[in-house]
Design goal:
Thioredoxin-like_fold, 5 helices, two-stranded antiparallel ribbon, five-stranded mixed β-sheet, NAD, single chain, alpha/beta, oxidoreductase, Glutaredoxin
């Protein structure tokens, strides 16, 4: 996906990783969130369960955190302690503002599933994840 070509990402441990190898051949969801946001802290564990189910069923799916945290340390803590193996755009990276505008994200949390060309496949994936988890009970 051209959105990430030649651009660094953070791996699940908070260190840099190669976006191309981490995302190649996978369906990608952008998760707009922050550790300071109470609604995000409620939804993140639900998204984590959904992500784990998809991975265990063999789906090629990856979540990229687009953090609205105000400090690099907060982003890294959120990523490593609460975001179950996901990738993230580094703190202060210009793509954060670019993606907020491009994908029309006025509030967080928001989850957008993308097509291969970077356009939106599912605009309100957050709601779909919540409904699916509710129905699975």
């Amino acid at each position: 996906m051209d959105l990430f070509v030649g651009k660094p990402l953070l791996g699940p441990d908070g260190t840099g990783c190669d976006a191309k190898s981490a995302l190649e051949g996978k369906m990608i969801a952008l998760y707009f969130s922050a550790m300071w946001c109470p609604s995000c802290r409620q939804f993140t564990p639900k998204l984590g369960r959904f992500y784990k189910e998809l991975k265990e069923s063999g789906k090629n799916f990856e979540i990229v955190l687009v953090s609205r945290d105000r400090e690099d340390e907060d982003l890294k803590e959120y990523l490593t302690e609460h975001c179950g193996g996901w990738l993230a755009i580094p703190f202060g990276d210009g793509r954060i503002q670019e993606f907020l505008a491009k994908y029309e994200v006025p509030t967080i949390p928001a989850l957008k599933v993308l097509k291969d060309d970077g356009s939106i496949l599912v605009a309100d994936a957050r709601n779909q994840v919540q409904v699916r988890l509710f129905l699975a009970r």
